[in-house]
Design a protein that fits this description.
Heat Shock Protein 90; 6-stranded antiparallel sheet; disordered N terminus
Length: 157
């Protein structure tokens, strides 16, 4: 995985290229949260971003690339109070060519998970999906307040 700062195309946009497997996604998220723009978010907004990005990327691994791994692009940029997120992959399209409804499932009936799209829809703004040129394109925004200090900084006395 590598991060590219693309000042030419979007101010403060960071791009992360991952491989669609659980270990790469975990490593990619760790690297993304150690870099801007995620590094400077408030603790609450970092937590929200972590939940949503983990759910989205794990869905790509489990569903879009169920038959085998492939590339994932994660692009992030920080605007006026919003973190703009874009995820692209070359895996299988969403069933029916549309986002899942995201209704909460019955916890007793679900062997594992089942709440991912409900959480994603609950926490995101402007959630959009399209299939173009053999690629899945998912974009959304998350509330984003900058931290007064970096994550992990201790107040000085």
């Amino acid at each position: 995985m590598r991060a590219d700062d693309l000042a030419d195309t979007a101010p403060a946009e960071a791009r992360f290229r991952l491989t669609a497997d659980a270990l790469s996604v975990c490593d990619g998220l760790r690297q993304a949260f150690s870099a801007e723009p995620l590094l400077s978010l408030s603790a609450e907004d970092r937590g929200t971003a972590e939940i949503v990005l983990a759910e989205v990327l794990n869905n790509v691994v489990e569903h879009a690339y169920a038959a085998g791994g492939g590339p994932i692009l994660l692009a992030l940029s920080l605007g006026e109070g919003l973190l703009q997120c874009r995820v692209e992959d070359e895996g299988a399209p969403m069933p029916g060519g549309a986002l899942p409804a995201g209704r909460p499932g019955d916890p007793a009936a679900l062997p594992e998970g089942g709440f991912g799209w409900h959480l994603i829809r609950l926490l995101c703004q402007g959630l959009r999906y399209e299939r173009a040129g053999g690629r899945n394109l998912l974009s959304f925004s998350l509330p984003a307040e900058r931290s007064r200090g970096r994550a992990g900084d201790c107040p000085r006395s």
